[in-house]
Amino acid sequence: MANRVFISTLGSEPQVVTLALYLLRLQGIECSRAVVIHTDDSVPAIGQALRDLRAEFQGRLWQGIDLELRPILAGGCPVRDISTEADAHAAFRTIFQVVQEEKRAGREVHFSIAGGRKVMSIYGMVVAQLLFDSSDRLYHLLSEGPLLKERRMVPRPEDEVRLVPIPVLRWQEGAFILGEIMRYEDPLEAVRSRALARQAEYERLDRFVREVLSPAERQVCELVVREGLSNAEVAGRLHISQKTVANHLSSIYAKLSQHLPLSRERPPDRYALIQALSAYYRERGEK
Q1: Which of 177, 147, 180, 174 has its CA nearest to residue 161?
Q2: Which of its termini does the chain have fewer beta carbons within 10 Å around, N or C?
Q3: Is 137 exposed, middle or buried (0-12, 13-18, 19+ CB in 10 A)?
Q4: CA gyration radius, the chain
Q5: What pLDDT was estimated at residue 221?
Q6: For residue 104, how many C-alpha atoms fall within 13 Å in the half-sphere facing its CB?
Q7: Is 50 helix (H, G, I), strand (E, B) or coil?
Q8: Residue-wise over 266-279: b if at least 16 C-beta within 10 A, else e?
Q9: pLDDT-derived band of residue 285, with 50, 70 and 90 as boundaries?
Q10: Is the pLDDT of residue 287 over 60?
Q11: What are the two backbone dihedrals, phi and then psi, of residue 11, each rounded to the nearest 5 degrees?
């Protein structure tokens, strides 16, 4: 729970925040923080929505969740509406900064783009493509019937409300987006295909690290790739000489060249090692 944050864009409907949080909880996803991105609260509808949220979060149902209300600012002043290019830029910047801050804090992000102006949803999607890890999730909220009309903050068992996950193709996967995705008519099939390809690549790298490298080489490799340590820092961490570290790295580079060809004209080096295995170590940390 401490490592999860819920983020939501907001317009005049405060229930988009609590409904999404409630549905996440039903899935076993508990968040310690809720960050709500909104326009100027001097606009009556926005001000009322924020007051309703503050009052709701005083209740026992939401105990343990830290609510932060984050206004969209342009030049230090709250944006009243997303009606100009400058307003849109400010919305983009605010959404980006909120997600970036949470990722830098090491939190898993669950982001609902159901509230607020459509342009906020669009920028939410773009930010997800830029900053999300494989553990982060983007959602849209679908609700119908009395729940929608009565603007209730928490659903009843008979209410028709769903939190719909939105597939995110991250921009660092651009080669796939430009190439493989053109083979599919259904975007969900493209996403599933990419997930399978990523799993296969992870397993290939995992075999290299666990079966090809020696235990000592694995230690050195992880410190170089995951933590970015220099030879001297690795030597100090492992209580070995810098020459031993250099020897391990020479062996790792040779094995890398043999087992994971990188299509490079020059022999593998530290940069090539980090490039080849950084995604593997990042994903291993998320599993």
Answers
A1: 147
A2: C
A3: buried
A4: 23
A5: 94
A6: 6
A7: helix
A8: eebeeebbeebbeb
A9: low
A10: no
A11: -115, -120
Return the CATH number of 4-168, one of 3.10.180.10, 3.90.70.10, 3.40.50.2000, 3.40.50.10770: 3.40.50.10770
Q: What is the DSSP string of 97-153?
A: HHHHHHHHTTPEEEEE--SS-HHHHHHHHHHHHHH--TT-EEEEEEE-THHHHHT-S
Partner residues linked to 33 by β-bridges? 5, 66
**How many Å apart are CA 71 and CA 86, to the nearest integer?**
15
Domain borders along the chain are 4-168, 175-286
Q: Which of 161, 162, 126 is nearest to 9 (CA)?
A: 126
Tens-digit pLDDT profile for residues 113-143: 999 999 999 999 988 988 888 789 999 998 8
Which is nearest to 91 in space by CA: 100, 103, 79?
Answer: 79
**Which 3 state secondary structure label does DSSP give 16?**
helix
Angstrom distance (rounded) from CA 273 to CA 243: 19
* pLDDT over 80 (residue 106): yes
Residues in the chain: 287
What digits encode the pLDDT tens for the residues 1-17? 458 999 999 999 999 99
Q: What CA–CA distance (Å, rounded) separates 228 from 21?
A: 37
